[in-house]
Every structure is written in C-alpha cells, then in structure tokens.
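OP here, attaching both records as promised.
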Amino acid sequence: MMTGKDYKASLDDGRETYFEGEQIANVAEHPLLGQTVESAAKGYDRFYDPTPGAVGAFMKVPDSAAALREQVELHETVDLLTHVTYASIMTLLTAADRIEADLPENAARIRAYVDQVQKADLRITQCITDSKGDRSKRPSQQDDPDHYVRVVERRDGGVVIRGAKLHISAASMGHELMTIPTKSMKPGDEDYAIACMVPVNAPGVKIINTTYAPRHEDTRDFPISGQHHTPEGFVIFDDVFVPSERVFLDGQVELAGLFAHSLGLWERLGGLSGMVNSFDALVGFAQLISEANGLERVAHIREKISEMLIHATLVRSSLEAAIENCQITSDGAAFPDELYTNAGKYHGAANWSLMVRHLHDIGGGAILTAPGIADLENEHVGHLARKYMSTSQAVDGQYRTRLFHAIRDFTADAYGGWNAVTQIQAGGGLYAQRIVSRLHYDFERAKRAALELARMPEYIGKV
C-alpha cells in the first residue's frame, strides 16, 4: 500500500493536465488542485497498512446487508477520490457478474484487474458521459463520429480509442480512468461499445480541469468549499492505445448498457447516502437561521421546516431500504436494491431545489449580503457590523453572520451551484432514475392489489 507521500510522488508521472489555460507540471504542487491532492493523501495515510498484500478497508467488497451498511457509513467520511475508487471497483464487479454468461473471459479479466488495483493501492475515476454532439442522434449517426468515445483502430494486442468524457470528478488526481459506454448501444454502434481501463498518464490522454474552489486568500467566508473541493475533469482521448488485457468490452452492443447501469447503481447509492447528510444539514440550517432571526415560532416558517424534514426522512428511509433489501450475487457480493436506490435518489434530486428554496425563504437576503469575517474584525466598522448583524443578546452578530456564510457557500455560491446541478445529474439525470425504477417496480403486485381491492380477483393473471 502507498502512504500519502508515496501517492503524491506517484502523480509526478508525466500526465498531461490543464487548468485555466495553463498546463500543470505537477498537480500536487498546484496551489488549488494541490489542495485536493492533499485531501486524497490524508486518505492514503488513514487506510495505510504496511502488511504485505494488505488491501484498504474502503475497498472491502460487502457480502451482506450489514457489511454494505458499514461501507456506506465509512464512505460518508472519506475524500471523494477514495469514494469514487470504491464505486468504480463495485461497478466493475457488478458488470463482471452481469456479463459472465456471455463473456466469461472478459469477466475473468475484470476480476483480475480489480485484484491488481487493490494490491497496488491505486485510485480510479469514472469516465462515462461523452460529449454526445447532437443528442437526438445515436453515436454512429453523429456528424462528427468522435462525439462518443470509439475504437478507431484495432491492432494486435489492443485497440486505439478517440473521444472525450465530461464531468469526471478528480480525473487528474487518480491513476486509472474507468472508461465505459454512457448508454445502451444498437447494431451499427459497435465501435462505441468499448469498456476499458486507461492510465491517466497514457500517451494521448489530456485533461482540462475546472473547480468551484473559492479564489480568495481568506477562506473563512467559505467554511465548506474553502476546506474541501474537487475539480471536474474534461478528459480527452486523443488516439490512446489500450492493451487487450485492459479491454473489458469491444463491440458487443447488446452488453454496453450493462456497464452504464452498473455504474449508475453505485453512483446513485453514493448520491443517495450523500443526500441523507445534506438534507439533514439543510433542515439544520433552516432551524438555526430561523432561531437566529427570531422566527422559529412563526407558522409558515414551521410549516416549511416540517416539509423539509419529511423529505429528509424519506431520503434516509430509501437508503435504509436499499441496504436492507440488498441482492447477493454469485460472487457473494452484496449490491443495493435497484428500486429503492433509484427511487430514493430520484426523490432527493427532484426535491433538492425545493429544500433550498425553503431555506432561502426562511433565511432572507443576508444569505448573499452578510459582511465578511474580515469586515467584522475591522477596527473602524467591525463593532458596528457585529451590532447590526445581531438580533438579541442571545444571538451575536458574528454567529449569525457565519451561519449566513455557510448557507451561501453550501447553496448559493460556486459550490452551491455545483451542488444544485450534481444533485440532479450525478449517476444520470432524473429520467434515467425513472427508467430504472420502472424496470424494477413490481407492476404485477400492484395490479393484483388493485384487482383485489376492486373485488375482481377472477382477472388476476389475465390482464
């Protein structure tokens, strides 16, 4: 296993990565991107075990509901790169189980790769969303054939791929890029039905980074994003060679969707578990700021908070159901229930904006206009700012101001905007979660219940 120091050194491997128009020689030493590297390095040190052959606890494959719950709870405490590595490993093992009957050699190749990654203590990021071009057209129908990642050449010993993947969290901070189809494919799309693993420093891989990290020397006004932030990578495959042992799917269009759906399951589980804490935090902020404003007993404020806490409770209930109703595969691995995972993620994503709207309505305009912490410390106006930002002897101005900063940072600034979009898009948009929910909902049970209620049991099994 690697230490945090080893991990930082491993990133100085010639990878081609860019940020705000400039190529970055070493991401670990960059003033902004390096902060994410530092967070991941702490994760390495946290799980480091010098025992030969040891595997990080966060990579443990669950074999029961209890073990799955343990991993979910553990991953609420890790950095994002550590989390997406686990989700990637579980995606690969899920896909291996699902393609076993049709491609046993490929399934064995996946399992061998996972074993290698675990032993080498590498970090994986997920490349799924293509640039897509004209969304009304299939991959093979695009005006530019490169709008979906595709195989442009097949050689002895491997393939050459070209294209781009978008929205790849921490792409420049990992070691491996799990590159899989973004959707189901049809005959004619064979070159696009490609699933493979690509080293971040492979020749031809180029990564453009963006980040919501605050560009301020004093990050006290950004209590959340000023401490932890993760860049999003625009990953370009400019004719990248991939050896055969790293290719898990090549041309089998009927199986392409299995990889996307496998990732969707684990990404949505991660999104759902993250929502549990985020929704509780939104309720907490709403209650705290209503008390700080002296409005906690006002009827419409209480009503809004009541609605918020119901949504928070339903999201938590969905996570509990997804874990308790997990499925055990032929490999003995526990996978969360598809229906509860997707329905819960959908409910949370669909109601995130409502939760934030209620919070903003309760908090008021000072969410955006509260003075900075440095202003409160100014010798000329600081005491006046604190005086007028207070609401009573029990609520001093600095406390209330810091609450406003936290709410703004979490919901109404660069990180807040990232939150608003990713709550919907992480693991696929709302439509994708509706599709999977429909696939796994027991319509026969529902129809049977309706016919029994209508006193029409003779029609059960006939309609």
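Record two, same layout:
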Amino acid sequence: MDVELTNMCMIYDRANDRLLAERREKGWPGVCFPGGHVDPGESFCASAIREVWEETGLTVSNLKFCGIVHWDNLNTGDQYIVYLYRTETFSGTLLERSEEGEVFWVDRKDFLDLDLAENFAEQYQMFWRDEIGEMYIPHGNQIPTFQYKIF
C-alpha cells in the first residue's frame, strides 16, 4: 500500500473576480489549480506555497485550509491525499507555463466551462463551501463514487 501526500491551492483575485488556472499536460490532464507533492520534512501548507511558486512564479501567503480529497484504490490499497488551500494574497510575475503546463487567469464565472481535469468540477466546490471538509473517492474497477463528509 502506498500513500501519496499532495496539495492544491486556489488563488483568487477578488478585485478582478478571477482565478489562477493551470492546464496540466501530464499525470492528471486538464484544468485545475497549482499544487503538487509534499516533500519529506515539509509541512502541508509550506509545500503548497512552494508548489505554487514553482508552477506559477507567484509567492502566496495567508493560505486558508479548505479540506481534504482522499482517493482510495480499493483494489490495491493505495491512497492519494490532497490538502486543499485557497488564498487571495499573492505577488510576483506570473509564468506563462511550467513543467506542468500553461498557467493563466480566468474569470471566475467561466472556470467551470473549461476542460477541467477528471472529477475536478466536484472538488472545486470544496474551495468555496466551508461545510464540505472531506471528499472521499473510493475506486477500483468501477467508476469513482463521491462521498462528501461535513466536519
């Protein structure tokens, strides 16, 4: 059984009502938010700050924890855990692309119309709805089912 710890951070530009999107080309293709793996000796929040900088060129702070997405492979026992954060505090010069793919601003109202990464439309809710603290996604040979947990 393997457990992977990861993070993702939504960057919201409230003044312009837009979100920073990332169009990933490998691993989990489609549009989502920046994020990545937690390195040994690194906190979840620190890893999110580092990953945002590596993938976007922006420095973020004042991250708010939004919840956890737990992918559970019932066949292998492997688990993939994503700690979700959001922030409106950022500075720096945006990269046009990173190793992951293109990064760009999109109007908030248009975000869900993009070609989102698989299952990301469901996860997107967690960045806005405080009552959803956990999304548990058991899967195996069947299509994933979503179970929302409220803290």
